[in-house]
Amino acid sequence: MTNNSSVDRGAGITVWRQIMETLKADIIGGVFEKGSRLPPESDLAARFGVNRHTVRRAIAALTSEGILRADQGRGTFVASAPLSYPIGPRTRFSEIVSGQHRAPSGRLIGSSIVDADAFLANQLGVPLGVPLIRVETLRVADGTPMIVATSWFEQSRVPNLVADYAENGSVTKALKAAGIEDYQRKETRITAELVDAQDARQLGLALGQPVMVMESLNLDDSGKPLQYTRARVAADRIQLVVNGDG
Description:
This protein has eight helices and ten strands. By secondary structure, the protein is α+β, with helices and mostly antiparallel strands. A six-stranded antiparallel β-sheet has the order 4-5-6-9-8-7. α1 (about 15-30) packs across α3, α2 crosses α3 (about 50-65) and α6 packs across α7. The radius of gyration is 21 Å and the shape is elongated.
């Protein structure tokens, strides 16, 4: 653990949030491993040069995010580090989550048939007005909501996608059921915005919290556009990692 960690009182960011982000960085960096006990509040207060109330607020925020847990009479422990989420040609939520010894799951939260507007027609390489399947999904790791995503597919290529996804909670498996064995990520564009009310309910976030927005395009084996997705990611639960070939 870093013994001398200062906070910048003129940074325009509240002191407790600076402490929260520093502790989160420690957890991501392996300074505090999963299951390890956090130092006492008095030690953390001395480390940051603040009172215990300020430290307690930072810990409470990390606890509400599921990163820390408080065991009565025993102390505060690291529940889980933010999920490391590589962005590359083969970005698969289930594989990423299970590879970090967590349990992935997916849930269909909405679907509809829409006509391709100019933007979606361009992304998917289809004529204007072609019927598309629009699906809203929630991706979860160890019971914690991580990503709300809206995806569009050409309906004629995957007519049973909604039912197949609802059954197994996996886009990859649903596409295989349609005869599409594999796909590759062409590009991912990452921005940020404040969470809206609907996504806040799904992700368990407070209004006004930031989410990362990942807009991505997947291609099938022949290089034809297959899936356009706009995903909203809980920024405090996932650390995006852009690979060199991503």
